[in-house]
Each structure stands twice: as C-alpha cells, then as structure tokens.
UniProtKB/TrEMBL annotation:
HAMAP family: AdoHcyase. It catalyses: S-adenosyl-L-homocysteine + H2O = L-homocysteine + adenosine. One of its GO terms (biological process) is S-adenosylmethionine cycle. Signal peptide: none annotated. GO terms for cellular component: cytosol. Keywords: Cytoplasm, Hydrolase, NAD, One-carbon metabolism. Binds 1 NAD(+) per subunit. Its cofactor is NAD(+). This is Adenosylhomocysteinase. It comes from Tuwongella immobilis.
Amino acid sequence: MTTATAAHSDIKDPNLAGVGKKRILWADQDMPVLARVRERFEKEQPLAGLRMSACLHVTAETANLVRTLKAGGADVMLIASNPLSTQDDVAASLVHDFDIKVNAIHGEDNNTYYKHIAAALAFEPNITMDDGADLVSSMVFIALDRLDDVHPMVREWAAKFSATERKSKFDNVIGSMEETTTGVIRLRAMEKDGVLQFPVIAVNDAATKHMFDNRYGTGQSTLDGIIRGTNCLMAGKRVVVAGYGWCGKGVASRARGLGAQVIVTEVNAVAALEAAMDGFAVMPMAEAAKVADVFITVTGNKHIVRREHFAAMKDGAMVCNSGHFDVELDLPGLQAETASISRDVRPQVDEYKLHNGNRIYVIGQGRLVNLAMAEGHPPSVMDMSFATQAMATEYCIRQKGKLGKAVYTVPVEVEEYVAITKLASMGIHIDSLSDDQSKYLSGWEHGT
C-alpha cells in the first residue's frame, strides 16, 4: 500500500485485510477467463496511464476485475454501488494487499455513499465503470449545471468549480462501462434526451453477461440470500416472481427447482406468455398478493409491490427485492399501513405489523437481497461478466475519438473469446463449420 492509496481510501477496518485476501484468491480460482485476460493485460498494458473510477459491488469477484484493470496499467479507484453489498474484508485487502484505492463501507449511510461518489468524481477519471449509473448520472447533472439534482455531498464538491469548468469537467472521459439492466435503461434515456456526455458500452446487454450472470447468477444468489436470511423451507411455498426478464427467469427456475409453486407477475404480454408456456402461473400482483408466501421483485421499475398489495398479504408473508434499486418495494406505503415495526427480528429482517394484525417480513431493507443477505453471484458466472467488462474497457480505449455520445453494444469478437475460453476452462469442446457449411450459410442460391 502506498501513501497515495491510503490517502484516497475510506474503508471500515484495515485489520480485515488478511481474511479478505483469502476470499479474493478463493474466488480467483474459479475465474479462469478473467485470469487469462489479466495475464495478457499485464504484458500489453492497454490501460497504461489512465485513471479509472469504478462504482461496483465491492465483492471478492469485483476485486479480481479491479486487479485485472490495474494489471493493464490503470490507476483505479473503486467505490460501492450499493451500501449493503460491500464486503469490508475485501475492501481492506484491495487497499493493503493490492494497492488499490477503495471508498466503500458495508452499511454506509446515504451521505457516506455520495461522499464516495464525490471522491470518484474528484479522481478525474478517464474511464468509468458503473453498476446502476449513479456515477454517470452525477457526471451528467454536473456537466449540465443541474446541481439541485445531485446529492448535497456531490454538490459540495461540484460547487468548487465555475459553471464553465463544470461543463468541461469530464471532457477527458473516454467512455464508461455499464454492468446492469437498470443502469442501461437510465443511460439509454440519457442518450435519448441528448445529455449523455461520452460513449457508454452496455456490458449488461452482452450475451456473455445477461444470459448467465442475470439468469443463473441472480437465480441462485437470490434464493441463497432468502434462505440465509430466513432459514425458510422453499418447498411448498407459493413464491411470486415479479418480472420475467433474464433475472426473473433465473429466480423462477431456481425457486421451482427447490419445490416452490411459482407465480409470475408481468406487464409485458410476450414475457407473460413465455412464463405461462414455461409452466408458471401468471396473474396480476393484486391477485398474487392474496395467496403467496414469498415475494421477489426483479423488474428494474419502482413500486412493484405497493401499499394495497401489502394490505392484502397473508400473515407472515416475506418480501424482498433483487432488482438494483430498493424502490421496487413501496416501503413508505408499507409503513403507512403499519401499526408497529420490529427491526432485526433476524439480522436484516424487519417485521411490519399491519393495522389488520398481519405481519409482513421485509428482507434486507428492500435492497438487493442476494448481496444484502448473501455473497452475491458465484465467481464462476462473474468470470464471464467481468472478462467481458475488462475487454470492453480495452475496446473503448482503442476506439477513442471514434465513438459518439451514445450507448454501444459489446463487440461480438469479445463475446466469442469469452465464451470459447470459458468452454475450454470447463473441458468442453464444440464443432466448427466446414468451409462448405460456411459458404452455404453465407449464400442464398441453395433452396429446396
């Protein structure tokens, strides 16, 4: 650890570093694709001389991504993208064992969260990474001189500069990588409104990310978080999965695998039809609220479970969220329906006793249940996401000056490399097209 790293870091306890290092290296064993990328980055130094601010979940898996970025020559600052997802021992190890600047504390309050956002902005990055677009949205508000729209901690930093300086503050940003569905939605809205300040690569939209990370990662880790948090038996439970995107598909599949009777709620007719043909019951939330035992939101939208839904729930119903932001559950609406609240009846499980006498249990404060109550996605699936993330960063740098202020997809060559390398690490080999087959697929002359 250098003096500069210590000065630019804010972590809970440096004495946790030893445990964190073990966790990081354990995860690294199950991330062979990222390790291959890191080995190449160390030789080629594609990120040399660049400053990077990354707003991500501070977990052991993320630690190995950040190690890869540093191996490529970048000077990296990592901050948390969720107050409850930080693993304090990992944060300590990154600072003290790997000389990486970290601003993240598990359970940090809103002011601390945005103080860390301000620190990431003050680092004056050339490249950013986001998981939810909080970092980029703050940069956009500042560039537009809309200081009333940013948190006071960010406003305090931005106010040090003149309006002209704020407008050009992020001119040296080459681009950004976005990791999650919610973030991509926000960024495409910025592009549509013409306020995006630099190119963004939608890593979440890569097949090597969403088909595996969102589906298998979210599916397993969400159920893991619920079970760790409550010790409930899923078999026989009626479980509502709100949203049937890639995350919802994974959660529904894993819940059914544990013996649950799964109900899907949707607003998209095609997704609802798919859920029905996959064998799940489909109904409106107003109906599902009356019969289900467990509710899981994974939509990326706000107020999916509202006051009237809480009021209709059975005594003992458990509610949680696995979407990026905690707004999927209308907790103010629940509080308005509540006679009394008992905090931490189990760690991070709150009991809301309604006016009608029924008890509702909210798991993980409505934040990402897989990270608030468990360890998040397993390293094997994050291996693909983070290898894609690292290589997308390299691509963005190589395209400097060629990309406009828009949201771009990950190049197919990156996805092919990640998939092929992952298969090889699993000992799996596949066929390849013959020249004749390739010619047939690229032509039009051959018919019936």
